[in-house]
Batch of 2 targets.
Target 1
Amino acid sequence: MVEHAVLYLFVGLVLLGGLMAAFAGQVLYAIIGLGVTLLGLSGIFLFLGSPFVAAMQLLIYIGGITVAIVFAMMLSTSMAMRPPQSHRGKSALAVFAGALFFAAMFVAMRGAEFPIPTGALPADAWAISRIGHLLLNAYNLVFETLSVVLLLAIVGAILIARRERKAA
Amino acid sequence: MTLESYLVLGLVLFSLGLVAALSQRNLIAVLIGVELMMNAASLNFMAFNRYVVQDPAVGQVFVLIIIGLAAAEVAIFLSIILRLYRQRREIDSEHITTLKG
């Protein structure tokens, strides 16, 4: 019973944060909404059986990405502080597009059938060590490619964001 | 909660992200919408991983890879925002139309 209450609390956090991020006027509120959503998702991942992914979500998303977005917001202050201009036509169209997408996917989902696996899982199916084995054996190529992508992203970000030297 | 309710939650989150990415004018808020959509995808992966897939480690590996790719994407996006702000003193998506045909 308590477990259900906590799970629905996390679901509520996800929805609340999503609404904040989608309809916030100020960027700061949108960032707070993103953080709340990520926190709720981390809790839901816990309920879905993976404490490791929940911890990574907390560390990388909330600890890294959200903080980086806050820094970028502070470095582009004038836009962030300017009172938002209302733009009703665009917002209404965006909400319409979102609702349309929701309806289409919902109808598609109702018709889908998902196979329920039979047969018992091995005892160590949810062990963290299995993730490590998969990352370094079956998915080693993906893992290494991802590290190269991250390195290139860091180098590219520095190249893009650095100050140009004055042309002589 | 059943698999379907997790999928509906992911769908709601994706739609909210879509609304944010389409309606917001500040580029940082647009980035937040994209992040919401990526997280909806992660939630779907984790739900399928829990209820449908035979080997539950595979979905977790997928979600970890999604998190890593999101980190790279955010780094590039934020550096572009900083560059734009330094050159033009604004990051309003309605005014940045240099590439418009």
Target 2
Amino acid sequence: MHLAALPRDARLAALREEVRAIERSRFAVPAAAAPCLAFGIAEVDARLAGGGLAAGLHEAAAATPAANDEAAATLFLAALAARFAMARGEGGQVLWALARRDLFAPGLAQAGLAPDRLIYAECRNDDEVLAVMEEGVRHGSLAAVVGEVGRAAMPALRRLQLAAEEGGTAALLLRRWKKANADPLGQPSAALTRWRLACAPSAPLPHDGIGRARWRLALVRQRGGPPYEWLLEAPDAEARLALPARSGDRPDRADGAQPVAARPSVQAA
Amino acid sequence: MLRADGAGALVTAHKIGNQNLLAAACPRGRALGLARGMPLAKARLLVPGLDVRAADAEGDSAWLARLGLFAARRWTPRAAVSGPDGLWLDLTGTAHLLGGERAMCARILGFCRRLGFTARIAVAGTAGAAHALARFGGEPLILCPSGGEADAVAPLPLAALRLDEAASSAAHRLGLDRIGALLAMPRGPLQRRFGPTLLTRLDQALGGAAEPFDPIVPEEPPSVLLRFIEPIATAEAIEQAIAEAVRRLVHRLAEAGLGVRRLVLACQRVDNSEQCQCVNLARAVRDGDHIRRLLCAKIEKIEPGFGIERLRLTAARVEPLAPRAVDGALAGAPAAPDLALLVDRLAVRLGARRVHRLTARESDLPERSVGRISPLGGAAAWPSWPRPVRLLVPPEPVEQVMALLPDGAPVRFTWRGRAYRVAAADGPERVYGEWWRCPQEREAVRDYFQVEDEVGARFWLYRCGDGGDPATGDQSWHMHGLFG
């Protein structure tokens, strides 16, 4: 094919396709067989290469060593895993490989990851977490595999990414902070997308209480696309993230009669 | 009128035809005059306050069959169920293994007592005499000397002979109520008057007629035994041996229509010690490749020493496994891999206890609200109160808390050496102590608050106590979890 003969847009598209083919491993299934999982938020999906998350390795980490940001990253991955599981229908199952015992299952259930979709594998160290994740994604019977690691070497991540593409299963990796000044996303990685999360103040309510939690969600790196950053609302019980309502759409703060928290925000495209 | 106080007396009743009859009575009930076969209405009249339960004949016979199976495995190879309430044990050649007849019987009685059964044992040279003495002898343990059966059964009532209704009522009419009376009579007239049953039973009790019984044969779990000409010690050789054993075992399982849930691999070494490895499976399987892979993962835990002479692979727990239709093969859709196989592999890699699901337990205390179940079990969901995603176990102390009493949320607090100022808060959610688990929790109260600081970090704090009464807690604050 002579690229020069094509119009500019088609030429770009052809080049992108070629790059994608190089990036994809020789084991990988064709792109058509692995559909992307959309967030259901038009503003986010439009920024993702492919319109969503493909089966492969995705990493998330807290923006600061604060424990709350890490909890936010955990919930974010739980919501993603729940969405992958829901996309598989009734029987979609998620494996959670953990090396620390502080995960609280009722909290995960409130992010949409129901207890009968989730199997836990308690590992002794980070290497075992990665090995269990690799076995899980390679098997192909799971919708997603979530793991929590402090340290991960590039070869292990590369293996995990290849296995995830091969098995058609999402591998979601939570990178925990080991030291206060060592950003877990500072090292290169084979992940398709890398996310960084931080808690953000929620919208004040006209009465006592706490509104829906908000996160600053940064897409630090993605394969085939530029980084981006959003302010999002935390997942609800159906694992749906949402954009905060624009100020014009908000109910009048002085009018206490209106329900506030139940207000839906921008919907899926 | 004087009526016995029947409080505490327990009977079971069953319905025969149109009548409600007593099936059994407890010792206290029997002391008050209740007996098997008495109409229930009469028993209630005699003993007010009687505790009546429905008789469970099937449950009883199931228990008896279990006991019989146990006896056949542990006490004697020849055991059988005798009627609705007894077991035959043939002690020939086995009593000395357990310390003689008396010691063995005492052990069996003790075993039954620990199970909650009241048992009576009679040992005699004939089955009929043992049957009669056990039920009518009146002692928990009767050892009848060899050849002394006639003397032993002579004082027993005729009912001890297992006669049919017609023969026993005819004998009763004639005034024959002891076996001894029959022994003194000539056989001819007895035969003519009562038919052949009476004499047969009498002979069986005295040893004049044989009485064979059909022993329980315990089912052995399917197993495969490999013996090696030369002891093996290398991993490759063990792997080959395992592959061969699995191939034979799967063949046997397929013939029996069974799937295996628990495998035991026992390797006997040349020094006569045994190395056992056990594999539990999440679901019944008969897939040879899968079983072999699981067992081969255990090879590194086997210490062959100077070599392994024998290798036995046992399917210790089996379940029926019918052939399954292959779905989607004709339509061209690839069959989805089976999750149970992955669970098995992870359980072998990590240990069976480390792969699990979490389900809701009925408790308001967060620490107790989560329970483990098997990885493919059905889990229950939690109520939708706000719960953090990370729980701190144990809860960490929080200092310098400023909060309005009795039920105000914290306004500022210090945790892990850092001060936080609260921007928004929700609560309290009050959790009471569970006095039925632990008496110290009778008064205990925790008030949980969800708070958000100025940068949006959310915490789950609680205060011990209700803010007023010191009996409910010491009013100290603790950090228990982190929201995302």
